[in-house]
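Reading group handout, session on sequence-to-structure problems. Before we discuss, look at one worked example. The prompt was deliberately terse, the way you'd type it at a terminal:

> structure RING-type E3 ubiquitin transferase

The input record follows.
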Amino acid sequence: MRAANQAEILRAHQRDDEFLKELDGKLQKFLSKIKNNKLTQWQSEIVRFVYFIFTSGSENLTLGEEYTGITQASIKNRKIVTIHARVLCLLLELFGERELLKIVDRLKQSAARSDDLNHKEAWLNILNLARLFIPVAVVFQKCMFYLMNSRFSISRQIAGIDYAKVFGMSPTGDVSWGLKFLGIITLIQCVLQIRQAGFNKDKDYDDAGQDHAGQLASSNEKVANCQLCFEAQPSAVTPCGHLFCWNCLAEWARVQSQCPSCREYLISSRIVPLLNL
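And the output record:
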């Protein structure tokens, strides 16, 4: 059993994402006609779940896997992965990171209401680190995939799912300079996220002794810059409510189908420009 290389895995996921975007657009039009706002907020998950049922959930290849000649397998055990592993992977991809962040945010709210100042500060520090670590870990896993052909995502790492080449030309095993460069850029993104989090934390401490007006001004300043380039003023918003400059967000959506902040499923057609800035 031969492991698929990064280029094949990326092409497979890009092919699947293109089809999912098409399905997502059709479902969005249908839901807008019937004016069902409750289902609209779950439309991405619905599309991915239905796609899973007819492909991996039925032990069939996805369109991307069939296109590149790869399949989900355990290279170490030299066998096709079980349906349980596939379901676990799907649930983690759909809800894992987002629900973890929600849990951390709820715990932070609970800790903030504590009367024990020492206990409160310790818990808030731990939860702030967790809030930082979760998205950084997701990005770092992608970095390891680009550089070392590690598993494509944390969800596949937990579920133990690799990709094996089953037909077509054999993979060369070499990592192209383009993928290496992408891995380095992704690593830089991890460092910038950590640095930005540290900057925000220091700023919070500096603002702690100021009056309410000073805190409000500081809060406005923190969101003044795009969280991707840290320079331009946000001019676009994702469906999940995160702000970025238009150029950064449009370029990001062209390459990846997830929000840079919360990893919510994102398609470029649902990016909303901000006017009158």
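Points for discussion. First: The two ends are 56 Å apart (CA to CA). Second: The chain has ten helices and seven strands.
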